[in-house]
Amino acid sequence: PRVDPAPAGPAPTTASGEPARLAELRAHEISCWFGDHMVLDRVSLTMRAGGITALIGPSGCGKSTFLRTLNRMHELVPSAKLAGEVLLDGEDIYAPDKKLTDARRHIGMVFQKPNPFPAMSIRENVIAGLKLTGTKASRSDKEALIERCLRLAGLWNEVKDRLEAPGGGLSGGQQQRLCIARSMAIQPRVLLMDEPCSALDPTSTRVIEETMKELAQEVTIVIVTHNMQQAARVSDQCAFFLAAHGTPGVIVEHGDTSAMFQNPQDQRTSDYVQGRF
Ligand code: ADP
Ligand code: MG
């Protein structure tokens, strides 16, 4: 018998009425080597559409490397080799017909150290990515986009009167939010964040955590963090990485954040989330 399709509800829209572009990102058996050194061994993880996934684990276990394989950033290292698949809503970003720029334009990245273009104005920083992605926008569209992205990053009220000031003149926390605004301007479907608050003070950190929850309305977020409280506060899904005694990094345990923290299934997870490491 034919099964009727589920009724199609209204497409989800963002606060500004644009269609939400929530995407699922699925890593399937990702292995990575630098030269002969294997640093990830068949890591699989599904990052839910519109969720915030936290990658946790000790230094050197491959969290940043894994994050970089999700937008092909590891290809910047000439010795890097990769096996496995990364599926963005089912489409492999490594498929032979996929261009590198496609992966990058749909999957934005924010780094540990805020890296706005320091001499460029705040305004120009936000739209700097549009040229790279070849996105065309009229002048008024650009102004609207700049405001929208700065609002999304929680920075609009602080900078709206000085959009021509250089990005490098902002505080560290503001610079990081400017980088978030810049990432969002290309309307990515996934936002990767590698310890985005590690270089920031606690107040800026909390502001960015609040921002992330807002951002998750329109983008799937993957964050690497060393801060267990942060993982517990912001993420709904968590993956615990470990690379024991020089072996390649693997995911020991993953699941809903509350379950991982309150009822870890693996002793090593339990030790780590309780600070015994
Ligand atoms: P984490 O982010 O969890 O601290 P990384 O992904 O940075 O871990 O590193 C995982 C492993 O890969 C480490 O052994 C590290 O030395 C190695 N590694 C990372 N980047 C490079 C690189 N560019 N060249 C060679 N080895 C690297
Ligand atoms: Mg790292």
UniProtKB/TrEMBL annotation:
Protein name: Phosphate ABC transporter ATP-binding protein
A Pfam family the protein falls into: ABC_tran
Segments forming domain ABC transporter: 25-273
Record PROSITE patterns: ABC_TRANSPORTER_1 (PS00211), ABC_TRANSPORTER_2 (PS50893)
InterPro entries recorded: AAA+_ATPase (IPR003593), ABC_transporter-like_ATP-bd (IPR003439), ABC_transporter-like_CS (IPR017871), P-loop_NTPase (IPR027417), PstB-like (IPR005670)
Keywords on record: ATP-binding, Nucleotide-binding, Translocase, Transport
A GO molecular-function descriptor: ATP binding
UniProt key word Acyltransferase: no
Chain residue ranges for the region called Disordered: 1-17
Superkingdom, natural source: Bacteria
